[in-house]
Write a structure and sequence with these properties.
Aminopeptidase, GNAT_dom, acyltransferase activity, transferring groups other than amino-acyl groups, Plant_NAT, alpha+beta, about 375 residues, six-stranded mixed sheet, Acyl_CoA_acyltransferase, binds coenzyme A
């Protein structure tokens, strides 16, 4: 197909909202061999990016048919790029082409148009995340558009049971004021890869439920730091969009049903019931997990229990999602369910300016830092 009859233009909510929702439904993405969670944007296809500082959504139109869509957002983050270690990055997400029109160059054209928007907005690097087994997406970005594999964070998903979990009395918790949380982030995490320069906007956003620290009982949180401590923040993603299970083998269905039956019949066993995932449900996203000291792994685990209990009391939060750097050992302390988690989410990156190419080669040579900041606005 020539490009002549294809129009790429900005999304127009009035004109496109229903058609984009329909397109999303026809393009469900996920691995065939395990369960995967699908975003349900509840009638607002742009909701996933609208908390980002700068964003756009493009649609591809052929005749009067909407055949493709892509979204992008821009922000300033930490990337190890002397002298300032700051870079303007453009995030690509939500690329979809309807099955009937695939392999005709529409996906490629959407990405190229988005890259042009990035360049016009001063972006240094574009990046995207994909399932490592998504061959079409990998070949499009890596083989065709020269993106390079960059980082492989893990997406950890934990179901929320209706039961309140016991929290050890050996630890104390504190919910931080926003200013306190921001200064803690800047002190300890600003050198993390992809740390957003506008962290204050995230913490002040109405979707941010707060930042908590945990430390051993008997010590205090104040002028000096406890011997061990951990922190994390929680974002109520379910206020923006819902999730539902896109694929589930019958073993999962049986497990869910039997766990619920066991909980009803034998509440004294305190077995966690696995929630129903077939209807759209809300979720919390945990970000900014940081820890120091010998007991900090236990403290992360305890903070996760605290978040679980908050979620258990909420109306529709059925899973807690966290994404951490591939070599971040905190993942060993974050409870998650393997069936729904993704051990290697693949991030690919490309320099948008000639002068950034050499910096990217240098960045690729350095081993990934243990910690990677995953922005809750990009989930
Ligand atoms: C990925 C996707 C957007 C590609 O759209 P598309 O319009 O078919 O892609 P294009 O026709 O522009 O393909 C460009 C190049 O990508 C690669 N590619 C695309 N689809 C491919 C496939 N199924 N298998 C192997 N390579 C593929 C090829 O290199 C292709 O070039 P070629 O046709 O000259 O060989 C589309 O398959 C899709 O919507 N998939 C489901 C959603 C998804 O996975 N999105 C990506 C999430 S990051």
């Amino acid at each position: 197909m020539g490009y002549g009859d294809l129009i790429i233009r900005s999304y127009n909510a009035q004109k496109d909202r229903v058609r984009v929702e329909d397109l999303e439904r026809r393009c469900e993405v996920g691995p065939a061999e395990r369960g995967f969670l699908i975003a349900d944007t509840l009638g607002d296809p742009i909701c996933r990016i609208k908390n980002s500082p700068v964003y756009t959504m493009l649609v591809a139109e052929l005749g009067n048919q909407l055949v493709g869509v892509i979204q992008g957002s821009i922000k300033l983050v930490t990337l190890h790029k002397p002298p300032k270690n700051l870079a303007r990055v453009g995030y690509i997400l939500g690329l979809r082409v309807v099955p009937l029109y695939r392999r005709r160059g529409i996906g490629l054209r959407l990405v190229i148009e988005l890259e042009e928007w990035f360049i016009a907005n001063g972006v240094d690097y574009a990046y995207m995340a994909t399932e490592k087994d998504n061959e079409a997406s990998f070949k499009l970005f890596v083989d065709k558009l020269s993106y390079v594999e960059f980082r492989k964070p893990a997406i950890l998903v934990n179901p929320v049971s209706r039961r309140i979990l016991r929290i050890s009395s050996n630890y104390e918790f504190e919910k931080l004021k926003i200013e306190e949380a921001e200064s803690l982030y800047r002190k300890f995490m600003s050198s993390m890869e992809f740390f957003p320069n506008d962290i204050g906007n995230i913490l002040r956003n109405k979707l941010s439920l707060g930042t908590w620290v945990a430390y051993p009982r008997g010590e205090s949180w104040g002028a000096t730091f406890p011997s061990s401590w951990a922190m994390l923040s929680v974002w109520n993603s379910g206020e923006l969009f819902k999730l539902r299970l896109g694929n589930a083998p019958s073993s999962c269905l049986m497990y869910t049903q039997s766990s619920q039956l066991m909980e009803t019949l034998f509440p004294c066993f305190k077995l966690p019931a696995i929630p129903e995932f077939w209807q759209p449900f809300g979720f919390y996203f945990v970000y900014g997990v940081y820890r120091e000291g010998p007991l900090s792994g236990k403290l992360v685990r305890t903070l996760c229990r605290l978040v679980h209990n908050m979620a258990a009391k909420s109306k529709d939060c059925k899973v807690i999602v966290t994404e951490v750097g591939g070599s971040d050992t905190s993942r060993n302390h974050i409870p998650h369910w393997k069936f729904l988690s993704c051990p290697e989410d693949l991030w690919c990156i490309k320099a948008m300016k000639n002068e950034e190419r050499s910096s990217l080669i240098e960045m690729m040579k350095t081993p990934p830092t243990r910690t990677l900041f995953v922005d809750p606005r990009e989930v």
